[in-house]
Amino acid sequence: MKIKNKNIFRIIPAATLTVVLCCPSVSQAQPSDPPVIDRNGHSRANVGLGAATRDDEVLDLLLRHNVTPRAVFMQTPGGFSGAHRNNDGQDAQTLIEEARAKTAESFENSLEGNLVRLRDLAETYTEEDIAANEDARNQARSLLIHRAAFEVSLAAAKNGSEKDLF
To answer: Which of 13, 20, 87, 165 is most buried, most CB within 10 Å of its CB?
Structure first.
């Protein structure tokens, strides 16, 4: 059995959330190998869905097949990603809600830090200095690009349980 690491559902187009079911993936298994079963009788799997799917639909799928998520991996439209492990044996709904909340908090903190750096740049350079200085221009451009990515990612983390956000 060969299981590849895939995304389980999409938060919004281009933003994905992966849930690892039961255990980490078995990527080296061969088709003729028997499924790997741990001492608790659980097998390992990563499951991917190819389209945007609401949280409630994914939770229904997990309940219907009696699986326990061990981790949630989030990737956002801004290109940021993160892992949220289920070390406390949380149910799937709590794990996904906490992953969203922690991810949103991280992006809020990133936006605050980005704003501080933008203010520092504005206090250090005049508009003319930025226009004349390639390094300052690159720094300003980078900060603005990251700001936009954090804003899109924050919206995805907060509202990603809705299927058609955009």
So the answer is: 20
Residue 51: partners with Cβ closer than 8 Å, 6 or more residues away? 10
Contact 75, 14 (CB under 8 A): no
Q: 8 with 54: CB under 8 angstroms?
A: no
Cα torsion through 20, 23, 25, 30, rounded to 10: -140
- Would the pTM of this model clear 0.85, i.e. be above it? no
Answer for the pair 53, 108: CB distance below 8 angstroms, yes or no. no
Whether 44 and 36 have beta carbons less than 8 Å apart is answered as yes
Residue linked to tokens 């990527």: 27
What is the Cα–Cα distance from 152 to 37, expressed in whole angstroms?
40
**Per DSSP, what are the bridge partners of residue 46?**
20
Q: pLDDT (tens digit, 9 = 90+) per residue, 19-55?
A: 544 433 334 445 556 666 777 777 777 766 655 567 7
Residue type, 62: L
Report yes or no: 7 and 47 within 8 Å, Cβ to Cβ.
Answer: no
How many CA atoms are closer than 13 Å to the CA of 149, on its beta-carbon side? 17
For residue 38, what are the CA distances in angstroms to 21, 41, 43, 70, 162?
Answer: 13, 5, 6, 14, 35
